[in-house]
Amino acid sequence: MALDYDLVIVNGIVVTDDAISEVDIAIKGEQIASLGPRGSFSNDIAGRTIDAEGGYITPGGIDAHVHLEEPQLFGKGSSAETFETGTRSAICGGTTTIIAFAPQQRTEDSLLSTLEATHKKAEGKCYTDYSFHLLVSNPSDRALAEFPILREKGISSLKIYMTYAALQLNDGQILDILLAAREHGITTLIHAENDDLILWMTAQLEKRKMLAPRYHATSHPAMAEMEATYRAICLSEFIDVPILLVHISSPAAAAHIRSAQSRGLPVYAETCPQYLFLTKADLDKPGFEGAKCVCSPPPRESEQDQEGIWQGLEDGTFTVL
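Given the sequence above, the corresponding structure tokens read:
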């Protein structure tokens, strides 16, 4: 007997982008085929029926910024989470799709080999759907020539860094990538911080033996993010190509992004929960508690900075959280 639907979910409270309602869901071919009032599908034949018993049913979350099972890019150890453990945690929290990073090492001149190696780590081990951003640290002629093949393989985004010795690209290399990305319809994610400013501040702190976790925020000042964000926008505007600036932490950087958007530039941005709920003071908690709040860029000075990031979410400056 032919099935009308593969799965029917009944008696749930369905949350969509514009309504919360008591409806049943019919699924066919891994896609929602129909929503209807309770009992709508009682006469249909389903491969499986789930009684949600008044529970809330939301769309699966998409986490577009995930680091799993990465190599020792900084010489200080690799990612603790594997594709199995990371996606298991994700699915338990309602995230059904992740986009993880496939990081190219400085010594590698191919992105296709990086993609293949990362697929091998993930294949058969993930509890969620997954895709990859290619993390480019060596934009060699060979790597740039592989962009059209990456698109054929379903990769539509890259990530580059403006800081960190193991990953940092200079402006000329960034322009090379942005031009190739424009030619092949690829979006470039950018970690925007001024490397020289961070290195200079770090050296000043080390001279003074100011090494506690709280000084991490001092070593990565908001000015480093603000300058690099503006520079990234200028480079992308020069090439006329979309970019996505990731983990924006400061209202000043957000203001540059908002200004670019108001001029019609395809500049997108992401922020993160730590910039909504933590401040620099959290890095000064006793023992290891402060170190738990270390991230780059770091949480900023005050609740006023948090309010600026909340405002960016409200007015559409940030398209990814």
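The chain has a mean pLDDT of 96. Try to locate this feature in the token string yourself.
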